[in-house]
Amino acid sequence: AGLVYVSAADQLAFFSPNKILIISIFVLAASTVGGYARRAGDRRPSPSVWPLRILQATAMIHLFMAGWAKIALGGEWLAKPYVFWTQVQGTYRTDAAAFLLNHLPMKGWYVMQWYALSFELLFPLMLAVKPLRKPGIFCGLIFQLMIAVTMKHLIYFNLIMASFFVLFIDEDTLRLMKLPLRINRFDAGKK
């Protein structure tokens, strides 16, 4: 309820991030309780997979439709090689974008434009096909970083979208990522 109230207070500043957060929090709140870390003899019920699939579908649809809109609504991203170059100027320009505008040749902007469009359109395929998943997540992080660095006020949106990539990491990789972060309760006070 608090998130809905805050989103109504400043609708222009966080239009998309708030909608995505509200949907995500609702899905997580409605999800079932269960044990994710299964051990031998564990009798807790297995959690339902539907919240994970809904959030995965949300990320896939959101990014694919962003790419589709760039093609279907005018097609400028296909016809003109300098669309991304024009978008990072003006109110969206960051200091990093200003530096790149002065030092990166137009061909570099053209490559970034095609990278962004290709990633958005291929995102569902890259994450639906298991061998493409890790490269897809890596490309996605680069994509979100590129936009966050070059376009002002979009960093929160990019952080939210990048956090969705965790939903596509398999359980074994998540366990490996968690091991270095684990602190032994008995050794925490000893130095």
Topology (SSEs and partners):
Layout: H1 2-9, H2 15-30, H3 50-72, H4 76-79, H5 83-87, H6 95-103, H7 106-128, H8 130-150, H9 155-163, H10 171-178
Number of helices, counting only DSSP H or I runs of 4 residues or more: 10
Shape: globular
Major sheet attributes: none
* Portion in beta strands: under 5%
**Whole-Å distance between the termini?**
44 Å
The structural class is mainly alpha
Radius of gyration: 20 Å
- The helix content is 55-70%
Q: What's the count of strands?
A: 0
Can you give the mean pLDDT? Answer: 79
Could you spell the SSE succession in H and E letters?
HHHHHHHHHH
Uncertain residue ranges: 184-188
Quick tags:
single chain; 191 residues; mainly alpha; globular
Brief synopsis:
By secondary structure, the protein is mostly helical.
